[in-house]
Amino acid sequence: MLKIDILTIFPELFGPFLETAFVALARRQGAATVAAHDLRGWAQDRHRSVDDTPYGGGPGMVMTPEPLIPAIEALAGAKGPDRKTRVVCLTPQGQPLTQRKLAAMAAGPPLLLVCGRYEGLDQRILDLAIDEEVSIGDYVLSGGEVPAMALIEGIVRLLPGVLGNPRSIQTESFQGGALLEGPQYTRPPIYRGLSVPEILRSGDHAAIDEWRRKNAHTRTRERRPDLLARADSETAADPIE
Ligand code: ADE
Fold first, then answer.
1. How far away, in angstroms, is 203 Cα from ligand 1 center?
2. Contact (CB, 8 A) for 216 and 182
3. How far apart are CA 41 and CA 68, in angstroms?
4. I want to staple 147 with a disulfide (CB 3.0 to 4.6 A). Which of 121, 136, 199, 236 is the partner?
5. Which pairing describes strands 51-52 and 190-191: parallel, antiparallel, or unpaired?
6. Which stretch of DSSP H or E encloses residue 2?
7. Does residue 92 line the site of ligand 1, with CB under 6 A?
8. Are residues 36 and 152 in contact, defined by beta-carbon separation less than 8 angstroms?
9. Ligand 1 centroid vs 146 CA: distance in angstroms?
10. Which of 225, 208, 224 is nearest to 171 (CA)?
11. Would you tell me how many other CB atoms lie within 10 Å of the CB of residue 214?
């Protein structure tokens, strides 16, 4: 059972997300608990403020150590060797999220996901209370809530028993190899004049596997040559994911 807590000023964003599809299934099955906590519940002042103007000037606001650090410590304990929970902050300044990181998180200790808003977090929050900073890509969103959802969705589908068919994890992009998936088809066999490749309907599984391998390679070379370069530079025993 993986425990995931979320610290946010918009807990209501997580309502339907936690009630839908694999995230709901994982919770129902007892593979995960996921709970969103309102940071403003830890605010001390009349306005329940969580941010302030940046020292040195500049646009936007910065999240203050009060109330964020007490909130993190209430949910995850103080930072240090005795802390049992991994505290992850979603920020464009973080390390890129990868399939490998998702797998490590799915297998690891309880998580507290801290969703930043505004221009960022006071550095002392990161120094005193955060274990790891993670980015979901080289673009800037308005807050860490959608990145936290991306992380949760990526994690829960890796928890034992959540996906009906673990083979679908094995063969998909980034897991067990560095290739993108090739094209997929289902019924009908002809749609608006476009046919399903004959070989996929042949029943010849060796030929189908070979066709899929070739197409995965072609697509990866065309769209993401960087993945092939990475795969070449790693050992066979250590595929990128
Ligand atoms: N918060 C805002 N943008 C983000 C990103 N790209 N990744 C993670 N957290 C973010």
1. 45
2. yes
3. 10
4. 136
5. unpaired
6. strand 2-8
7. yes
8. no
9. 8
10. 208
11. 11
Closest CA to 10 of 149, 200, 137: 149
Ligand 1 mean position, distance from CA 17 (Å): 18
- 105-132 burial, b at 16+ Cβ within 10 Å, e below that, comes to bbeeebbbbbbbbbebbbeebbeebbbe
What atom in ligand 1 is closest to the CA of residue 140?
A: 3
Amino acid identity for residue 235 in this structure = T
Q: Is the CB of 144 under 6 A from ligand 1?
A: yes
Distance in angstroms (rounded) separating the CA atoms of residues 219 and 224: 8
- Look at strands 194-195 and 190-191 and give their pairing: antiparallel
Q: Give the pLDDT confidence of 62-115 residue by residue, as tens digits.
A: 999 999 999 999 999 999 999 999 999 999 999 999 999 999 999 999 999 999
**How large is the greatest C-alpha to C-alpha distance in the chain, in angstroms?**
70
Residue 236 beta carbon below 6 angstroms from any ligand 1 atom: no
Give 158-172 pLDDT, tens digit per residue: 999 998 766 666 656
Radius of gyration of the chain (CA): 22
Q: Which residues contact 1 (CB under 8 A, 6 or more apart)?
A: 30, 31, 32, 33
Residue type for position 228? L
The C-alpha angle 164, 170, 175, rounded to 5 degrees, equals 125
Instruction: Spell out, as residue ranges, where the chain has pLDDT lower than 50.
Output: 235-241
Q: Which ligand 1 atom minimizes the distance to the CA of 116?
A: 1
